[in-house]
Amino acid sequence: MTTTDIMNSRGRVTPSFIDVRTGERIPWDARHNTLSYDAAHAMALAFGGDDSLIPNRIGIVYGIEESPSFGTIDRQQAWDDFVHDLQAKGANVQIRPFSYSPSFTQITSSGSPGSSGSGSAEASGASSPESDRQGWAVTFHSHSDSVTAGAIDSGSSVSSSSGMIFSYGMRIYQAVLVNEANGKYTVLARVSLDNAGTYYAKPENFEVALDWTVKFF
Length: 217
Fold this sequence. Notes:
The protein is mainly beta. It has helices at residues 37-47, 79-88; strands spanning 9-18, 25-27, 31-32, 34-35, 57-63, 92-97, 100-108, 134-143, 171-181, 184-192, 207-216. It contains two helices and eleven strands.
């Protein structure tokens, strides 16, 4: 008899607009992300004691076009392909460090009392083998600013001083959870920030805040 243990991981992004001066927030609908193949690589390395690919940045994808057509997000998320995709849409990405240290929460997959409750929105509503499965969630926190330029220049290289500024009126397309090490970027997860096929514009005096949670069961 062969027994197989399976560990599931899933990601969820909760975006909002925030006035960093007053703390006022305007929430958006939460949505699921797609973890890349490199996320599995990062996890395997971390289990072996190598933290070189753990998440340490969040990128916010933005541009001028009101409704560009992005393809389906899949697990193939090589950085060069990501850059090419953005350039084809006239978009850029602002790469930001975490606002503060990641937070950890013990959860259950059903969101039952005593848990964080964050698992309930991902359940189908019917009982399943995952019901009441114990797990842990890690949440990364970051927000944009209106002075840092986009990371992608007119070529395919990355520079902190190139690209258009993420200013008032820019449309907000997607976000990526990344690792940056010695100027090399690895996309670990990607999420669309569309709302029924349209994209929010960045309001004056507000920044885009993201709480990016990855759950492990």
